[in-house]
Protein backbone atom coordinates (compact mmCIF):
# COMPACT_ATOMS: atom_id res chain seq x y z
CA UNK A 1 0.00 0.00 0.00
CA UNK A 2 1.51 3.39 -1.05
CA UNK A 3 2.21 5.77 1.83
CA UNK A 4 1.59 9.04 -0.05
CA UNK A 5 -1.81 9.97 -1.46
CA UNK A 6 -2.35 9.27 -5.15
CA UNK A 7 -3.94 12.74 -5.36
CA UNK A 8 -0.45 14.24 -5.15
CA UNK A 9 0.36 12.62 -8.50
CA UNK A 10 -2.18 14.98 -10.08
CA UNK A 11 -0.51 18.20 -8.94
CA UNK A 12 2.87 19.91 -9.10
CA UNK A 13 4.64 22.43 -6.84
CA UNK A 14 4.07 26.13 -7.56
CA UNK A 15 6.49 27.26 -10.31
CA UNK A 16 6.42 30.87 -9.13
CA UNK A 17 7.51 29.87 -5.63
CA UNK A 18 10.16 27.59 -7.15
CA UNK A 19 11.64 30.47 -9.18
CA UNK A 20 11.67 32.79 -6.16
CA UNK A 21 13.36 30.12 -4.05
CA UNK A 22 15.94 29.48 -6.77
CA UNK A 23 16.76 33.19 -6.97
CA UNK A 24 17.19 33.36 -3.18
CA UNK A 25 19.47 30.32 -3.16
CA UNK A 26 21.66 31.72 -5.94
CA UNK A 27 21.91 35.07 -4.13
CA UNK A 28 22.84 33.29 -0.90
CA UNK A 29 25.58 31.49 -2.83
CA UNK A 30 27.00 34.86 -3.87
CA UNK A 31 25.55 35.01 -7.39
CA UNK A 32 24.47 38.33 -8.90
CA UNK A 33 20.78 37.55 -9.43
CA UNK A 34 17.80 39.85 -9.97
CA UNK A 35 14.56 38.11 -9.06
CA UNK A 36 11.48 39.14 -11.03
CA UNK A 37 9.39 36.13 -10.05
CA UNK A 38 7.65 37.17 -6.84
CA UNK A 39 4.18 38.72 -7.00
CA UNK A 40 4.77 40.89 -3.96
CA UNK A 41 4.78 44.70 -3.62
CA UNK A 42 8.11 46.11 -2.48
CA UNK A 43 6.29 48.80 -0.47
CA UNK A 44 6.06 48.45 3.30
CA UNK A 45 2.70 47.93 5.00
CA UNK A 46 1.29 51.41 5.82
CA UNK A 47 1.99 52.65 9.35
CA UNK A 48 -1.66 52.96 10.39
CA UNK A 49 -2.16 49.27 9.65
CA UNK A 50 0.96 48.28 11.59
CA UNK A 51 -0.14 50.44 14.52
CA UNK A 52 -3.55 48.72 14.54
CA UNK A 53 -1.79 45.35 14.79
CA UNK A 54 0.39 46.59 17.68
CA UNK A 55 -2.68 47.96 19.44
CA UNK A 56 -4.39 44.57 19.07
CA UNK A 57 -1.40 42.87 20.67
CA UNK A 58 -1.33 45.37 23.52
CA UNK A 59 -5.07 44.88 24.07
CA UNK A 60 -4.59 41.12 24.39
CA UNK A 61 -6.46 40.26 21.21
CA UNK A 62 -4.29 37.20 20.79
CA UNK A 63 -6.81 34.39 21.38
CA UNK A 64 -8.76 32.16 19.06
CA UNK A 65 -11.43 33.98 17.06
CA UNK A 66 -14.51 32.83 15.20
CA UNK A 67 -13.42 30.24 12.63
CA UNK A 68 -13.93 32.40 9.55
CA UNK A 69 -13.33 35.90 10.86
CA UNK A 70 -14.08 38.37 13.63
CA UNK A 71 -17.38 40.31 13.34
CA UNK A 72 -15.53 43.61 13.00
CA UNK A 73 -13.63 42.39 9.95
CA UNK A 74 -16.73 40.93 8.33
CA UNK A 75 -18.49 44.26 8.81
CA UNK A 76 -15.52 46.06 7.25
CA UNK A 77 -15.62 43.68 4.27
CA UNK A 78 -19.34 44.28 3.79
CA UNK A 79 -18.76 48.04 3.90
CA UNK A 80 -15.92 47.75 1.38
CA UNK A 81 -17.97 45.67 -1.06
CA UNK A 82 -20.82 48.20 -0.91
CA UNK A 83 -18.50 51.22 -1.16
CA UNK A 84 -16.26 49.98 -3.95
CA UNK A 85 -18.43 47.52 -5.87
CA UNK A 86 -22.06 48.40 -5.12
CA UNK A 87 -22.64 44.89 -3.74
CA UNK A 88 -24.80 44.29 -0.67
CA UNK A 89 -23.69 41.45 1.64
CA UNK A 90 -24.31 40.59 5.27
CA UNK A 91 -21.61 39.25 7.63
CA UNK A 92 -23.24 35.80 7.36
CA UNK A 93 -22.31 35.86 3.67
CA UNK A 94 -18.61 36.53 4.33
CA UNK A 95 -15.71 34.16 4.93
CA UNK A 96 -12.21 35.22 6.01
CA UNK A 97 -9.28 32.88 5.43
CA UNK A 98 -5.52 32.67 5.69
CA UNK A 99 -4.88 34.45 2.41
CA UNK A 100 -6.78 34.48 -0.84
CA UNK A 101 -5.46 31.05 -1.78
CA UNK A 102 -7.22 29.38 1.15
CA UNK A 103 -10.51 31.06 0.29
CA UNK A 104 -10.40 29.71 -3.26
CA UNK A 105 -9.32 26.27 -2.10
CA UNK A 106 -12.03 26.06 0.58
CA UNK A 107 -14.70 26.89 -1.99
CA UNK A 108 -13.47 24.23 -4.38
CA UNK A 109 -13.15 21.53 -1.72
CA UNK A 110 -16.62 22.39 -0.46
CA UNK A 111 -18.25 22.05 -3.89
CA UNK A 112 -16.34 19.68 -6.19
CA UNK A 113 -17.46 16.13 -6.93
CA UNK A 114 -15.68 13.64 -9.19
CA UNK A 115 -16.21 14.63 -12.83
CA UNK A 116 -17.08 18.25 -12.08
CA UNK A 117 -15.37 20.69 -14.46
CA UNK A 118 -13.94 24.15 -13.79
CA UNK A 119 -13.30 26.53 -16.69
CA UNK A 120 -10.01 28.40 -16.26
CA UNK A 121 -8.92 31.02 -18.81
CA UNK A 122 -5.26 30.80 -19.79
CA UNK A 123 -2.89 32.42 -19.05
CA UNK A 124 -3.88 31.60 -15.47
CA UNK A 125 -2.47 31.94 -11.99
CA UNK A 126 -0.44 28.78 -11.52
CA UNK A 127 -2.47 27.51 -8.53
CA UNK A 128 -5.93 27.43 -10.11
CA UNK A 129 -5.67 24.12 -12.01
CA UNK A 130 -3.84 22.32 -9.21
CA UNK A 131 -6.35 23.44 -6.59
CA UNK A 132 -9.13 22.07 -8.80
CA UNK A 133 -7.27 18.77 -9.12
CA UNK A 134 -6.66 18.57 -5.37
CA UNK A 135 -10.37 19.15 -4.81
CA UNK A 136 -11.21 16.23 -7.10
CA UNK A 137 -12.39 18.23 -10.11
CA UNK A 138 -11.19 18.58 -13.69
CA UNK A 139 -9.73 21.86 -14.96
CA UNK A 140 -10.88 22.88 -18.44
CA UNK A 141 -8.40 25.34 -19.92
CA UNK A 142 -9.72 27.98 -22.34
CA UNK A 143 -6.81 29.76 -24.03
CA UNK A 144 -6.89 33.52 -24.53
CA UNK A 145 -4.31 34.76 -27.01
CA UNK A 146 -2.07 37.80 -27.22
CA UNK A 147 -4.28 38.92 -30.14
CA UNK A 148 -7.24 39.40 -27.76
CA UNK A 149 -5.10 41.06 -25.10
CA UNK A 150 -5.01 37.78 -23.15
CA UNK A 151 -8.77 38.08 -22.53
CA UNK A 152 -11.27 35.28 -23.03
CA UNK A 153 -14.00 35.95 -25.59
CA UNK A 154 -17.67 35.15 -25.13
CA UNK A 155 -17.48 32.52 -27.89
CA UNK A 156 -14.58 30.79 -26.16
CA UNK A 157 -16.46 30.71 -22.85
CA UNK A 158 -19.58 29.37 -24.54
CA UNK A 159 -17.57 26.61 -26.24
CA UNK A 160 -15.96 25.53 -22.96
CA UNK A 161 -19.22 25.08 -21.03
CA UNK A 162 -20.59 21.54 -20.74
CA UNK A 163 -23.28 19.94 -18.55
CA UNK A 164 -20.42 19.04 -16.15
CA UNK A 165 -19.24 22.62 -15.68
CA UNK A 166 -19.57 23.75 -12.07
CA UNK A 167 -17.36 26.85 -11.85
CA UNK A 168 -15.91 29.53 -14.08
CA UNK A 169 -12.82 31.12 -12.46
CA UNK A 170 -12.42 34.75 -13.44
CA UNK A 171 -9.42 36.96 -12.62
CA UNK A 172 -9.19 40.63 -13.61
CA UNK A 173 -6.75 42.35 -13.55
CA UNK A 174 -4.93 39.14 -14.26
CA UNK A 175 -2.00 37.32 -12.82
CA UNK A 176 0.14 36.73 -14.91
CA UNK A 177 -0.71 39.16 -17.72
CA UNK A 178 -2.09 42.26 -15.98
CA UNK A 179 -4.97 42.18 -18.47
CA UNK A 180 -8.15 43.87 -17.24
CA UNK A 181 -11.62 43.36 -18.68
CA UNK A 182 -13.67 46.45 -19.45
CA UNK A 183 -17.29 46.54 -18.37
CA UNK A 184 -18.38 45.86 -21.96
CA UNK A 185 -16.03 42.88 -22.28
CA UNK A 186 -17.18 41.47 -18.96
CA UNK A 187 -20.84 41.98 -19.89
CA UNK A 188 -20.32 39.74 -22.93
CA UNK A 189 -19.08 36.99 -20.62
CA UNK A 190 -21.85 37.43 -18.07
CA UNK A 191 -24.43 37.27 -20.87
CA UNK A 192 -23.08 33.80 -21.68
CA UNK A 193 -23.21 32.76 -18.03
CA UNK A 194 -26.81 33.91 -17.71
CA UNK A 195 -27.70 31.33 -20.37
CA UNK A 196 -26.16 28.55 -18.26
CA UNK A 197 -27.69 28.66 -14.77
CA UNK A 198 -25.74 25.60 -13.57
CA UNK A 199 -22.40 27.43 -13.84
CA UNK A 200 -21.12 29.31 -10.80
CA UNK A 201 -18.62 32.17 -10.92
CA UNK A 202 -15.51 32.36 -8.73
CA UNK A 203 -14.07 35.82 -9.26
CA UNK A 204 -10.57 36.56 -7.99
CA UNK A 205 -10.43 40.35 -7.51
CA UNK A 206 -7.09 40.45 -5.68
CA UNK A 207 -5.67 43.13 -8.01
CA UNK A 208 -8.82 45.27 -8.00
CA UNK A 209 -7.11 48.46 -6.81
CA UNK A 210 -3.99 48.07 -8.97
CA UNK A 211 -5.19 49.62 -12.23
CA UNK A 212 -3.72 52.31 -14.46
CA UNK A 213 -4.78 55.12 -16.76
CA UNK A 214 -8.51 55.38 -17.34
CA UNK A 215 -9.22 51.68 -16.80
CA UNK A 216 -12.17 51.13 -14.44
CA UNK A 217 -12.40 47.90 -12.47
CA UNK A 218 -15.67 45.98 -12.28
CA UNK A 219 -16.60 42.55 -10.98
CA UNK A 220 -19.12 40.04 -12.43
CA UNK A 221 -21.94 40.36 -9.87
CA UNK A 222 -21.67 44.14 -10.20
CA UNK A 223 -22.01 44.00 -13.99
CA UNK A 224 -24.78 41.37 -13.98
CA UNK A 225 -26.88 41.34 -10.79
CA UNK A 226 -28.58 38.19 -12.07
CA UNK A 227 -25.39 36.29 -11.19
CA UNK A 228 -25.39 37.43 -7.55
CA UNK A 229 -26.82 34.18 -6.17
CA UNK A 230 -24.17 32.01 -7.86
CA UNK A 231 -21.08 34.18 -7.54
CA UNK A 232 -18.32 33.97 -4.98
CA UNK A 233 -16.55 37.33 -4.96
CA UNK A 234 -13.01 36.77 -3.64
CA UNK A 235 -10.46 39.36 -2.60
CA UNK A 236 -7.88 40.14 0.07
CA UNK A 237 -5.52 42.71 1.51
CA UNK A 238 -2.24 41.27 0.20
CA UNK A 239 -1.54 43.32 -2.92
CA UNK A 240 -3.13 46.78 -2.66
CA UNK A 241 -2.26 47.13 1.04
CA UNK A 242 1.23 45.54 0.79
CA UNK A 243 0.21 42.89 3.33
CA UNK A 244 1.31 39.67 1.62
CA UNK A 245 2.82 38.18 4.77
CA UNK A 246 -0.18 39.01 6.95
CA UNK A 247 -2.20 36.29 5.13
CA UNK A 248 -5.76 37.60 5.03
CA UNK A 249 -8.13 36.80 2.18
CA UNK A 250 -11.90 36.96 2.08
CA UNK A 251 -14.94 36.09 0.01
CA UNK A 252 -18.61 36.96 -0.10
CA UNK A 253 -21.35 34.79 -1.54
CA UNK A 254 -24.49 32.76 -0.80
CA UNK A 255 -24.86 31.75 2.85
CA UNK A 256 -25.05 28.03 2.04
CA UNK A 257 -21.67 28.12 0.31
CA UNK A 258 -20.09 30.29 3.02
CA UNK A 259 -21.31 27.82 5.68
CA UNK A 260 -19.76 24.92 3.74
CA UNK A 261 -16.46 26.79 3.49
CA UNK A 262 -16.61 27.48 7.22
CA UNK A 263 -16.98 23.76 7.87
CA UNK A 264 -13.87 23.02 5.79
CA UNK A 265 -11.89 25.69 7.62
CA UNK A 266 -13.05 24.52 11.04
CA UNK A 267 -11.43 21.15 10.41
CA UNK A 268 -8.26 22.44 8.75
CA UNK A 269 -6.63 25.72 9.80
CA UNK A 270 -9.38 27.19 11.99
CA UNK A 271 -9.23 30.98 12.32
CA UNK A 272 -6.77 33.28 10.55
CA UNK A 273 -4.25 35.08 12.76
CA UNK A 274 -6.13 37.33 15.19
CA UNK A 275 -3.58 40.16 14.89
CA UNK A 276 -3.71 40.08 11.10
CA UNK A 277 -7.49 40.31 11.23
CA UNK A 278 -7.39 43.50 13.30
CA UNK A 279 -4.78 44.93 10.92
CA UNK A 280 -7.10 44.12 8.00
CA UNK A 281 -9.96 45.97 9.71
CA UNK A 282 -7.82 49.10 9.70
CA UNK A 283 -6.71 48.47 6.11
CA UNK A 284 -10.28 48.36 4.83
CA UNK A 285 -11.72 51.08 7.06
CA UNK A 286 -8.73 53.42 7.23
CA UNK A 287 -7.22 55.91 4.75
CA UNK A 288 -7.01 54.69 1.16
CA UNK A 289 -5.08 57.56 -0.43
CA UNK A 290 -1.73 55.72 -0.41
CA UNK A 291 -3.09 53.25 -2.98
CA UNK A 292 -3.23 55.91 -5.69
CA UNK A 293 0.28 57.06 -4.77
CA UNK A 294 1.65 53.52 -5.00
CA UNK A 295 -0.12 53.05 -8.32
CA UNK A 296 1.73 56.03 -9.78
CA UNK A 297 4.98 54.23 -8.99
CA UNK A 298 3.69 50.96 -10.44
CA UNK A 299 2.51 52.66 -13.63
CA UNK A 300 5.87 54.35 -14.11
CA UNK A 301 7.61 51.01 -13.68
CA UNK A 302 5.17 49.29 -16.03
CA UNK A 303 5.80 51.85 -18.77
CA UNK A 304 9.56 51.59 -18.36
CA UNK A 305 9.56 47.77 -18.44
CA UNK A 306 7.23 47.59 -21.46
CA UNK A 307 9.38 50.08 -23.39
CA UNK A 308 12.65 48.33 -22.57
CA UNK A 309 11.37 44.83 -23.30
CA UNK A 310 9.87 45.89 -26.62
CA UNK A 311 13.34 47.16 -27.53
CA UNK A 312 14.74 43.63 -27.07
CA UNK A 313 15.17 41.62 -30.26
CA UNK A 314 12.59 38.86 -30.58
CA UNK A 315 10.36 40.07 -27.71
CA UNK A 316 6.89 41.60 -27.96
CA UNK A 317 5.37 43.01 -24.77
CA UNK A 318 1.74 44.23 -24.60
CA UNK A 319 0.76 47.05 -22.22
CA UNK A 320 -1.33 45.64 -19.33
CA UNK A 321 -4.22 47.47 -17.68
CA UNK A 322 -3.45 46.49 -14.11
CA UNK A 323 -1.69 44.30 -11.51
CA UNK A 324 2.12 44.50 -11.52
CA UNK A 325 3.04 42.01 -14.21
CA UNK A 326 3.89 42.00 -17.88
CA UNK A 327 3.70 38.87 -20.02
CA UNK A 328 5.93 39.32 -23.06
CA UNK A 329 6.10 36.89 -25.96
CA UNK A 330 9.45 35.38 -26.93
CA UNK A 331 8.18 33.92 -30.19
CA UNK A 332 10.96 35.74 -32.03
CA UNK A 333 13.60 33.99 -29.93
CA UNK A 334 12.44 30.40 -30.43
CA UNK A 335 14.82 28.29 -32.48
CA UNK A 336 17.87 30.43 -31.71
CA UNK A 337 20.90 29.57 -29.61
CA UNK A 338 22.21 31.54 -26.64
CA UNK A 339 25.79 32.70 -26.18
CA UNK A 340 26.17 29.88 -23.68
CA UNK A 341 25.18 27.30 -26.28
CA UNK A 342 21.60 26.68 -25.11
CA UNK A 343 19.06 25.96 -27.87
CA UNK A 344 15.99 28.09 -27.13
CA UNK A 345 13.23 25.69 -28.11
CA UNK A 346 10.54 26.96 -25.70
CA UNK A 347 9.93 29.59 -23.02
CA UNK A 348 11.24 27.33 -20.25
CA UNK A 349 14.67 26.96 -21.87
CA UNK A 350 14.63 30.73 -22.51
CA UNK A 351 14.02 31.42 -18.81
CA UNK A 352 16.62 28.91 -17.64
CA UNK A 353 19.30 30.25 -19.99
CA UNK A 354 18.47 33.83 -18.98
CA UNK A 355 18.97 32.94 -15.33
CA UNK A 356 22.17 30.99 -15.88
CA UNK A 357 23.80 33.42 -18.32
CA UNK A 358 22.50 36.82 -17.17
CA UNK A 359 21.29 36.26 -13.62
CA UNK A 360 17.68 37.33 -14.23
CA UNK A 361 14.95 35.14 -12.73
CA UNK A 362 11.58 35.18 -14.51
CA UNK A 363 8.75 32.62 -14.65
CA UNK A 364 8.31 30.80 -17.95
CA UNK A 365 4.94 31.00 -19.67
CA UNK A 366 4.14 27.27 -19.76
CA UNK A 367 3.65 27.47 -15.98
CA UNK A 368 0.70 29.79 -16.66
CA UNK A 369 -0.76 27.71 -19.47
CA UNK A 370 0.25 29.84 -22.47
CA UNK A 371 3.52 29.85 -24.38
CA UNK A 372 5.92 31.14 -25.63
CA UNK A 373 5.95 33.86 -22.98
CA UNK A 374 7.43 34.72 -19.61
CA UNK A 375 6.16 36.72 -16.65
CA UNK A 376 7.95 39.69 -15.15
CA UNK A 377 6.85 41.16 -11.85
CA UNK A 378 7.70 44.87 -11.76
CA UNK A 379 6.93 45.13 -8.04
CA UNK A 380 10.58 45.88 -7.29
CA UNK A 381 12.89 48.88 -7.46
CA UNK A 382 13.40 51.00 -10.56
CA UNK A 383 17.14 50.32 -10.50
CA UNK A 384 16.66 46.55 -10.33
CA UNK A 385 14.11 46.66 -13.17
CA UNK A 386 16.36 48.79 -15.39
CA UNK A 387 19.30 46.47 -14.84
CA UNK A 388 17.18 43.34 -15.36
CA UNK A 389 15.65 44.65 -18.59
CA UNK A 390 19.08 45.67 -19.83
CA UNK A 391 20.34 42.15 -19.18
CA UNK A 392 17.30 40.66 -20.97
CA UNK A 393 17.94 42.94 -23.95
CA UNK A 394 21.64 41.95 -23.99
CA UNK A 395 20.73 38.27 -23.73
CA UNK A 396 18.38 38.53 -26.71
CA UNK A 397 20.98 40.42 -28.72
CA UNK A 398 23.41 37.51 -28.41
CA UNK A 399 20.95 34.88 -29.66
CA UNK A 400 21.91 33.47 -33.04
From TrEMBL:
Its cofactor is pyridoxal 5'-phosphate. Its EC number is 2.6.1.-. Residues 31-392 form the Aminotransferase class I/classII large domain. The keyword Transferase applies. It is an enzyme of class 2 (transferase). It catalyses: L-aspartate + 2-oxoglutarate = oxaloacetate + L-glutamate. Keywords: Aminotransferase, Pyridoxal phosphate, Transferase. It comes from the Bacteria. GO terms for biological process: amino acid metabolic process. One of its GO terms (molecular function) is L-aspartate:2-oxoglutarate aminotransferase activity. Belongs to the class-I pyridoxal-phosphate-dependent aminotransferase family. Homodimer. PANTHER family: ASPARTATE AMINOTRANSFERASE. This is Aminotransferase. It comes from Actibacterium naphthalenivorans.
Amino acid sequence: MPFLSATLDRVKPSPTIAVSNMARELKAAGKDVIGLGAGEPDFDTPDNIKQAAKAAIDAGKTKYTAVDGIPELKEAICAKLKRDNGLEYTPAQVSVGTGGKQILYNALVATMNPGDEVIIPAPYWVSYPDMVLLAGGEPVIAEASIQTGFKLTADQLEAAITPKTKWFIFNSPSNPTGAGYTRAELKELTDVLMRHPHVWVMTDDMYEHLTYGDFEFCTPAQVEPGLYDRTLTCNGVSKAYAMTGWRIGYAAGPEKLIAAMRKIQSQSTSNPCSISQWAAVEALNGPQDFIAENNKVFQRRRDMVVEMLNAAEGISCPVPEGAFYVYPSVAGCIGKTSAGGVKIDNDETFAKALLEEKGVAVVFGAAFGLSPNFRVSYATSDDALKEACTRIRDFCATLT
